[in-house]
Amino acid sequence: MRAMKDSGIEWIGEIPVGWEIRRLRFLCQIITGDKDTINKKEDGLYPFYVRSPNIERIDSYTFDGEAILMAGDGVGAGKVFHYVNGKFDYHQRVYNLHFFKDISGKYLYYYLKENFWKKIEESNAKSTVDSVRLPMLLDFPVALGELPEQTRIASFLDNKCTAIDASIEKQRASIDKLKEYRQVVITNAVTKGLNPDVPMKDSGVEWIGEIPEGWDVVKLKWLARMKSGESITSNIIDNDSTYPVYGGNGLRGYAKSFTHNGSYILIGRQGALCGNVHIVKGNFWASEHAIVTYELITLDQKWLFYILSAMNLNQYSTSAAQPGLAVEQIQRLSTLLPPISEQHEIAAYLDQKCTAIDEAVSKKETLIKKLEEYKKSLIYEAVTGKIEIPELSA
């Protein structure tokens, strides 16, 4: 058990005896890029680093060597990091840490990636746009031991994090397949029914294909009236009021009053996720960014939810700066109408199947969260010396 001492910094805690705390200004040089907009290319020769986790491509570079890149402002400020060793270019509001002295670049990358956000939360760096000022970066405290130990820690974390990331990606791929399977199950049930032996006929609708003989093809407007919700300003929405407020991407927050009472299907009207479908019950506020569905004939509401989900309404969004759906266009779309008894059967079947799939997805999402938490904990403990990385035997 190695001897420990107080680092003098609360969020670092104890560090090994023999380690020291040094300010970042003494460990590297820090500059920023000089480009705002660029002519990016799909097949550009060199990576161009921006303030988000995304990496673009261009045909020129301004730096060649080992560096750590950090977003300087925007939503990724102090939280988006890249370790690079080679030719690249970068945005003017991205910090470039390089020319490392007495410290391993890869060790510092792991140290900053796990710890710098704590400095942001500790300070008053947040304004209308999150930002990291250079003095804060220069004064950031770094715990470090001798260079050989830093190298061991970096190598250890490379191996461990690669394995953890591979496990996470495997789970995410599995989740994607489950979600694809869920959509296939829904589409097959709402377009073909549950009886594989029933006689079929051509629906005349390309995405639907053949349907059971006893089903009808109708326009959505004959099944339900659709209307945008009521306008609401952001200052009315909070997290402490009673009634949920739903917008184009689902729940936005809460308000002190409501526009609807009962059980309704809501369709996202605006935003990147427009076309998403929810059933909402109770007292709630439907905002102008959501489409409220009012059934005009006797329908199984859950069946209607499933067939709307199968219609992939997002494909009908306009390609404006803010994607959106036109209510009139959606109501003109063709859909299916099985007998009410079959609607009940399909809804019950899909409830059972989708619940099982959703539970499997939830378990994998929980596992991903645990793996991510383990990774963060492992990095923190390694770069603050709370676990000792032994030297490899010759």
TrEMBL record:
Keywords of this entry: DNA-binding, Endonuclease, Hydrolase, Nuclease, Restriction system
Domain of life: Archaea
Coiled coil regions, renumbered to chain: none
Alphabetized InterPro entries for the sequence: Restrct_endonuc_typeI_TRD, Restrct_endonuc_typeI_TRD_sf, Type-I_RE_S_subunit
Residues in Type I restriction modification DNA specificity domain copies: 16-162, 212-355
GO biological process: DNA restriction-modification system
EC class (word): hydrolase
SUPFAM superfamilies xref list: DNA methylase specificity domain
Enzyme Commission no: 3.1.21.-
GO molecular function: DNA binding; endonuclease activity; hydrolase activity
Family: Belongs to the type-I restriction system S methylase family.
Name of the protein this chain belongs to: Restriction endonuclease subunit S
